[in-house]
Amino acid sequence: MRERIGCFSCNRTVDWGEYFICISRLRRIRSEQGDDEIVNAMASLQVCIYCVARAQFDSITIHNEVPLLELEKAGFYWFARRLAGNTEPWALSTGEHSCTLCRSAIKEGDCYTQIEISEEVAKHEGGIEVIPESISKLATICDSCAKKYMVWWYDTYGNIIDVA
Ligand SMILES: [Zn+2]
Ligand SMILES: [Zn+2]
């Protein structure tokens, strides 16, 4: 169970029942059956509806806890404008079988990171509910690009540190 959701822009706590936008990084293992297991997950960005409304017209300050990828920043503004009715498609390729950044193939048994943006609701019980139809893929990133761009942080033993 996650703690109360804080907005990375205005720092206020998202109230129960309130919507917010979340960018998730999901590290998965490609399997032939297609039910790719999630091995690590974190939220790289959480923004409340008031700041999302500002982001539709202006750039907002983001106090990110982990370095954001340029594509995550761009994806956030794209998604905010989309909620305001903009219909421009997302500019990057998000195919499942190759890395968005270096185009190398993601094969069976490979770990990769999926970056998604979605609308979520803070639940009274302390959990969150993802609005399934809101989920948009921003990128599929191979493990070597994930290391290069510090998508995950590692301890001295090579294990991923949970930062979220
Ligand atoms: Zn906010
Ligand atoms: Zn790559």
Give a written overview of the molecule.
The protein has 164 residues and is an alpha+beta fold. It has one domain (19-161). It has helices spanning 49-55, 70-83, 143-148, and strands at residues 19-29, 37-48, 111-122, 128-130, 136-142, 153-154, 160-161. Strands 1, 2, 3, 4 and 5 form a five-stranded antiparallel β-sheet that branches. A two-stranded antiparallel ribbon has the order 6-7. The chain is globular, with a radius of gyration of 16 Å. The relative contact order is 0.23. The mean pLDDT is 91. One zinc ion (ZN) is lined by residues 7, 9-10, 12, 47-48, 50-51. The site of one zinc ion has 8 residues, from strand 2 and helix 1.
How do the strands and helices of this protein lay out in sequence?
Layout: E1 19-29, E2 37-48, H1 49-55, H2 70-83, E3 111-122, E4 128-130, E5 136-142, H3 143-148, E6 153-154, E7 160-161
Antiparallel strand pairs: 1-2, 1-3, 3-4, 3-5, 6-7
One zinc ion (ZN) is lined by residues 7, 9-10, 12, 47-48, 50-51.
Our count of helices gives 3
- Look at the structure and give the mean pLDDT: 91
Task: Give the total of beta strands.
Answer: 7
Which range does the strand content fall in? 25-35%
Shape: globular
Ligands, ions, cofactors: zinc ion
Total domain units: 1
Poorly predicted tracts of residues: none
